[in-house]
Write a structure and sequence with these properties.
Length: 187
Amino acid sequence: MSLASLRAYAISKKVPIITDEVYLFLKAFVLEHNIKDVLEIGTAIGYSALAMASFGCNVKTLERDEFMIDEARRHFDLFDNEKRIELIPFDALTYEGDLGMFDLIFIDAAKSQYQTFFNKYERYLKKGGYIICDNLHFHHLTPDKVNRHTQALLRKIKVFKTFLKEHPHYETTFYDDGDGLSVSKKV
Ligand SMILES: C[S@@+](CC[C@H](N)C(=O)[O-])C[C@H]1O[C@@H](n2cnc3c(N)ncnc32)[C@H](O)[C@@H]1O
């Protein structure tokens, strides 16, 4: 099975994974910035972790959902031939194990918790490293067209974007690729 067939499998199972645009963005980013060690929050079935491993990265990836953990394990056993990926089957909100230091942290988990993930894991980022967050456009939904729960989520994402813009130790650029990305450089 190739990454392309894993993508097709994810779509058939309705598992949200990075878009082709984000795949290409990450590939170019990893190569341009010589990224070697990646921490990912939100594994799902392992697609983006396998993608980054195929770009030459070593990836530690956190996932809390039992079904996703089983699926990711199966896919890593099958396709991670160079053993570049370590699956950490824990909730990223409460995980307290030692992780090491990373060139890139890729946040692609519960959108309502992005600021918490950022604050909790940025201490594992090397100086000059990057934090990339996916889905910041949140499907371009607007508050007038969604229920209260989604309105609260949209407010949280807005607050998070302001937090990124104003963070004294990070320089953040926003991109429209996929469903919206932020790239924050630790300065
Ligand atoms: C959008 S999917 C990840 C897709 C994956 N990065 C890819 O592109 O192949 C988000 C995943 O984050 C997981 N997740 C959400 N909150 C989490 C948390 N607090 N800790 C660990 N995993 C979490 C969900 O179970 C889900 O599988």
